[in-house]
Amino acid sequence: MTRSAVEIAEMAKEIYTRTNQKIFFAGIALDNWRKAEASSAFNVQALVQAEREAALFHLYGGLLGVCHEIAGYYRMNDAAPSRVEAFVQQAVLEGSPSPELAELVELAQQRETWLAQLLAAYAELFQPPREERKAKVDPSMPLITAVSVGEEPVEVSLDDIEAWRQQLKALILRFREGLSEC
């Protein structure tokens, strides 16, 4: 059975199509990342970095799309948040309680979850480059080296982002199943 151009155009206006696109685009970026790592091009590091950032960008967009789907389904006051962080807050949950939003808020608040790690990695894209921390030598104690102990940003691996993509896909399918009216 084929769909008419009108039906396809109408489907493109559905909120979920943007979410699906972003997940798909993240997959393309991950495939390109794999190809970049396997290549012998002189600019492999730049290609890998570009695909890492593209994958994070699209995953974040997919997560934002899920937020829009939830907000639209429950007819929330702010049905079109422009940032995931504005959506996954306790105050928003208290104003518009829903099980899906409650789960997202809980995942976002726990640093060890895939969602919190995705949000942190996305936020890191907007931080300026940092110099590597070097050991500080104390001239009064030449045999002891003091090292600054701070949180260093860790580059996210391809496997991490692929795992986040799979987690997000599973979450989307589960949420949509619960959001669909019978």
Widest sheet: strand order? Answer: 1-2
Q: Helices and strands, in N-to-C order?
A: HHHHHHHEEH
Largest sheet: 2 strands, antiparallel
Radius of gyration: 21 Å
| Helix count from the secondary structure assignment | 8
β-sheet strand percentage: under 5%
Q: What is the count of β-strands?
A: 2
Based on CA inertia axes, which overall geometry fits? Answer: globular
Low-confidence stretches: none
Helix/strand class: mainly alpha
Gap from first CA to last CA: 24 Å
What value does the average pLDDT take?
A: 84
The level of helicity is 55-70%
List key phrases describing it.
182 residues, mainly alpha, two-stranded antiparallel ribbon, 8 helices, 2 strands
Question: Can you tell me about this structure?
Answer:
With 182 residues, this protein is mainly α. The protein has helices spanning 5-12, 15-38, 44-73, 84-87, 90-95, 99-109, 114-124, 158-179, and strands at residues 136-137, 145-146. A two-stranded antiparallel ribbon has the order 1-2. The model has no long low-confidence stretch (mean pLDDT 84).
Task: Briefly characterize the structure.
The chain is an all-alpha fold. The protein has helices spanning 5-12, 15-38, 44-73, 84-87, 90-95, 99-109, 114-124, 158-179; strands at 136-137, 145-146.
Secondary structure layout plus pairing:
Layout: H1 5-12, H2 15-38, H3 44-73, H4 84-87, H5 90-95, H6 99-109, H7 114-124, E1 136-137, E2 145-146, H8 158-179
Antiparallel strand pairs: 1-2
Helix pairs in contact: 2-3, 2-8, 3-7, 3-8, 6-7
